[in-house]
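Intended use. Records like the one below are meant for learning the mapping from a protein sequence to its folded structure. Do not use them to infer anything beyond what is encoded.
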Amino acid sequence: MRNPKTIIAITAAAFCGSLLIASPAAAEGRIHKRADRQQERIAQGVKSGQLTAGETARLERKEAGLNKEVRGMRQEDGGKLSAADRALVNHQQNQLSRQIYRQKHDAQTRN
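Structure written out for the chain above:
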């Protein structure tokens, strides 16, 4: 019979190893889901009148530019994003998220 501590250690090592293997794919999935959520936030701002036409167009251009940049990064790295690329995209998504919030909560409204 094996020692319970050994079994726990082996299980923990296997789990951590699976996280390392799955994390790049999971991170890319998170990037895609986050872009979808930000797109939904922009659409909700248009629907509610919180975003003007100009604000919407500007945010949409920035979102499209970020999506194009991500596609280019993936093409350069054989379909995957490197850790540095994921960090850069996350930073850019943070900036875009703040811009969406600020535009939705400024005093301008659609007439």
